[in-house]
Amino acid sequence: MTQILMPKATAVWLIDNTGLTFKQISEFCKLHILEVEGIADGDVATGIRGADPIANGQVSREEIEKAERDSDYGMKPNKFDSDELQPTKKKKGPRYTPLSRRQDRPDAIAWLVRYHPEVTDAQISKLIGTTKPTIKSIRDRTHWKINTINPTDPVSLGLCSQIDLDSIVKKAAEKKAKEDAANAEEGGETLTPVEPAPLPSEKPKVEHTLESLFKPSES
After folding, report:
1. 169 to 97, 105, 111: CA distances (angstroms)
2. DSSP code of 31?
3. Within 13 Å and on the Cβ side, how many CA atoms surround 66?
4. Inter-axis angle of helices 121-128 and 105-115, nearest 10
5. Looking at per-residue confidence, does 50 or 86 come out higher?
6. What does the DSSP 8-state code read for residue 120?
7. Alpha-carbon dihedral of residues 151, 157, 158, 161, nearest 10 degrees?
8. 70 and 42 Cβ atoms separated by less than 8 Å
């Protein structure tokens, strides 16, 4: 769907120059109807100069006139070739952390290291937007403020969502389970069962009698 340029400025122009209802303007400009009412009352968008959507090609005059005749009609903006282009995928990278919350990251790292040791440094870095050297220093307890770090859930600190945390923990647990299973299978192939040592054969007991002792041997 076409995104209206300068929606508030467009709403100002439509309020001043057309007979459209607040609802029609709200739906066309993608603004809340109370915001449109505030613009009409002068409480919102004060000082914003109206932008003519007809002049900048966002809608035709015929479309506005059609909407003016029917208050239930929703105006449709003009389409451009660029509207058909697929949106580019968001580039993956470390999560951006607001400056006000960056001081809380060591506490979050310590919590993840303590309660989810299966989560890798790369996953922690992506989850809360930190660096691997910082994570390593907390693991090794060489961080400059290690004595004041208080392990705290990163969700409660506002550094990530619960969904993102659960996803990372689940992936790390599944990966560790696969590695453990592979190591166990590999170990089972290399080790051969120890067979019990054979018992020494028992020698037949020789019973000696007085007669056999003194009986002359046959030549």
Report:
1. 20, 18, 13
2. -
3. 10
4. 140
5. 50
6. -
7. 40
8. no
CA distance 138 to 107: 9
Residue 4 has a CB neighbour count (10 Å cut-off) of: 19
Tokens 């307890």 — which residue? 141
List pLDDT tens digits, range 97-124: 555 566 889 999 999 999 999 999 999 9
* Number of Cβ atoms within 10 Å of the Cβ of 114: 10
- How much is the average pLDDT of 184-200? 58
Could you tell me the two tokens for 196? 């019990």
* DSSP conformation class of 146: G
Both tokens of 144, joined, read 């400059």
- Tokens 């809360």, located at residue: 128
The reported pLDDT for the residue numbered 147 is 92
Q: The whole model's pTM is what?
A: 0.43
Phi and psi, residue 74, nearest 5°: -100, 120
